[in-house]
Design goal:
Order of helices and strands: HEEEEHEHHHHH
Strand content: 5-15%
Helix content: 40-55%
Number of strands: 5
Number of helices: 7
Radius of gyration: 26 Å
Shape: elongated
Structural class: mainly alpha
């Protein structure tokens, strides 16, 4: 796995996960005066220059692209906080709960659209990559404990991207174990066809024409 997404195993693409993560709320600093915006998901605003306002990430990106605001990175996207998270991840086999479920997608979107608003952006990016690698190594270690007697797997505090990659992999691995250790539990198409009741036709056969 090595921290890389395999599109054949993943349930969702990276773009689909980012789309879901765009509903996360972030802080922006508008540079325009505008009344509230009304959407199905809720009302956001009013907007006043230099007054912090909370909006969904997708709206923050849209305003940022038009030069209407700057985006404040979440508190966890600081060098100090990420360094603490990385240290905690390295010191324990348990997954840290100090990062949001969509931390990978949120950080990627902000790197793409608001990197000029992120202090120490290169160090922040490096720390997030290090955290991802450490967490994936933990997942791989947990998966090495798989055997034919495994009936369920519980790994706490996985992120959306990690769940997206690990869940289908675990499902296929368990199925392979069951098929290897208990083949009778896996339906065999040939056996199923042999078990189908044979329909007996007692009607007289029609003779072929000559």
């Amino acid at each position: 796995m090595a921290g890389q997404s395999n599109h054949e195993l993943s349930l969702f693409s990276a773009e689909e996960l980012e789309f879901i993560a765009e509903d996360e709320i972030v802080d922006i600093v508008p540079n325009l005066k505008m009344g509230p915006l009304n959407f199905i998901s809720g009302d956001f605003g009013p907007f006043t220059p230099q007054i912090v306002t909370q909006v969904p990430l997708w709206l923050a990106i849209a305003l940022k692209k038009r030069g209407k605001c700057s985006i404040r990175p979440p508190q966890w996207m600081s060098v100090e906080k990420l360094s603490q998270v990385l240290e905690a991840e390295r010191d324990s086999q348990e997954m840290s709960d100090q990062l949001p479920f969509h931390y990978v997608e949120i950080s990627r979107l902000l790197f793409d659209h608001a990197r000029d608003n992120i202090p120490d952006v290169y160090m922040v990016r490096s720390l997030i990559e290090d955290i991802r690698n450490v967490r994936f190594h933990k997942v791989e270690t947990d998966l090495e404990a798989f055997n034919g007697r495994t009936i369920a797997v519980k790994i706490k505090n996985l992120s959306a991207m990690e769940v997206n990659i690990v869940r289908p992999f675990i499902g296929r691995a368990l199925q392979a174990f069951y098929k290897h250790d208990s083949p009778e539990l896996i339906p065999d198409p040939e056996r199923v066809s042999d078990r189908r009741p044979q329909v007996v036709n007692n009607a007289p056969r029609r003779q072929l024409r000559r």
